[in-house]
Amino acid sequence: MRIIAGKYRRRILLTSPGQTTRPITDRVKESLFENIEKRLIGARIADVFAGTGTIGMEALSRGASCVTFIEKDRVALQLLRQNIAALKCEDETLVWPADVLRCSFRPKGKKAPAFVPFQAIFFDPPYAMVPSMVEGSPLWLSLSRLARPDVSTEGATLVLRVPERAKYDIPPQWVVDWSLETSNMKIDICRRVSDAIPQDAEIAADEIADDSTEDGDADGGTETGSSS
Fold first, then answer.
1. In angstroms, rounded to a whole number, what is the distance separating the alpha carbons of residues 42 and 59?
2. What are the residues whose beta carbons fall under 8 Å from the beta carbon of 39, sequence distance 6 or more?
3. For 112, which of 95, 107, 179, 183 could close a Cys bridge (C-beta 3.0–4.6 Å)?
4. C-beta separation of 25 from 17 below 8 A
5. In the predicted model, is pLDDT for residue 11 greater than 60?
6. Which residues in 128-182 belong to E strands, given as ranges?
7. What CA–CA distance (Å, rounded) separates 36 from 55?
8. What is the bridge-based pairing of β-strands 93-97 and 118-123?
9. What count of other Cβ atoms lies within 10 Å of the Cβ of residue 219?
């Protein structure tokens, strides 16, 4: 997998073998970034279900100021850190080994204040989880927590990748502006429209202990839904 454009153009990134991650093709990635690139310049990015980081790295290459990678799978995390080391972009990246269904999306540590609130979020859940993304479900509540004003800015961009013809719900704080459809997937480009927080989302977030350690990391796991 390679970075298509920007300061890291043509650099090759490690990806996980087999079904651990679902790398997005160059053709789809190029089409996506051509449409959202202006939103990424100088932006603080979250790459959620990050896998080995190819989407977040593409954003960083194209002018994002920093990227927080949130991933649980240990194999993907190891490769992600190798990719960061290869690009020598440690100062602009934060690796957070956390369970997306539980984490607060508010990393701690010395570096963390410069990385939030997010202005653009890539959210790429495992395809098998998408049909269960209905109001009040763990994945739906994760999107609600991402809309908290201390996590993302009003007007923030959410890039949601789902399988084609999937049926799912998203919280009312996110509005779909447009969608990019290919033969086997759909990418919704959403915008955060309000600082209002549904009561259930706020309670859920308040009950969650921040998973991060002093350097912004948390204990990892063995499952993944990563994209890259």
1. 10
2. 119, 120, 157
3. 107
4. no
5. yes
6. 152-163, 174-181
7. 13
8. unpaired
9. 11
In angstroms, rounded to a whole number, what is the distance separating the alpha carbons of residues 61 and 63? 6
Task: Give the span between the Cα atoms of 17 and 180, in whole angstroms.
Answer: 26
Strand partners of residue 37: none
End-to-end Cα, the chain, rounded Å: 9
Is residue 85 scored above 60 in pLDDT?
yes
Q: Are 48 and 225 within 8 A, CB to CB?
A: no
Q: What is the pLDDT of residue 119?
A: 98
Q: Is the pTM of this model over 0.85?
A: yes
Rounded Cα distance between 13 and 69, Å, is 15
Q: Which bin fits 53, alpha (ψ -120 to 50), beta or left (φ > 0)?
A: left
133-140 long-range Cβ contacts below 8 angstroms, 24+ apart: 133/168, 133/169, 133/170, 134/168, 134/169, 135/169, 135/171, 136/200, 138/101, 139/100, 139/101, 140/169, 140/170, 140/171
Give the integer Cα–Cα distance in Å for 181 and 48: 20
Q: Is the dihedral of CA 83, 87, 90, 91 positive or negative?
A: negative
Q: Which amino acid is at 110?
A: K
CA distance 10 to 16: 19
Tokens, residue 164: 């084609």
Tell me how far the alpha carbon of residue 151 is from its chain's centroid: 13
pLDDT tens for 163-202 read 999 999 999 999 999 999 987 899 999 999 976 555 455 4
